[in-house]
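To whoever picks this up:

The nightly regression suite flagged Integrase catalytic domain-containing protein as changed. Nothing in the input moved, so I suspect the structure step. Input below, exactly as stored in the fixture:
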Amino acid sequence: MTPILNHVPFAMWGIDLVGKLLKAKASLEYVVVAVDYFSKWVEAMPLKKTGSDSIVRFLWKHVITRFGVPRILVCDNGPQFESEELAQFYEIYIIEHRFSPSIIPSVMVKLRTTPSHATGETPFSLVYGSEAVLPAEAGLPIYRHLRFNE
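Regenerated output under the current build:
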């Protein structure tokens, strides 16, 4: 994997949708989230629907009016990010639209089981309190497996 470098705050944002979640008040079931690549600043907004009009409204209200027009927006290949409405929005504001590569599970395993330089711990161990059992460890006499029945 090659890191995406950015040296200017709020010039490059990653955006994605989270959901379908349990319905909140006003039938809100989704959250659109944008993260600035430089500062890691997060903006989010709950949504009823995931249409491109909701994405445009979010970008205008939570990104452009607060931080200015970004140069680049990175998102996945979801249909709400590929609409004609968003294409026109990008064209009007001269925003480069990039698609993130589809992340395969093997890449996610590597990211979640690699120790962080900052903490010395893996993301998996911070969340679950123990290390993940990796495929290469299956069937081996590992200490935590040997103590399982105690």
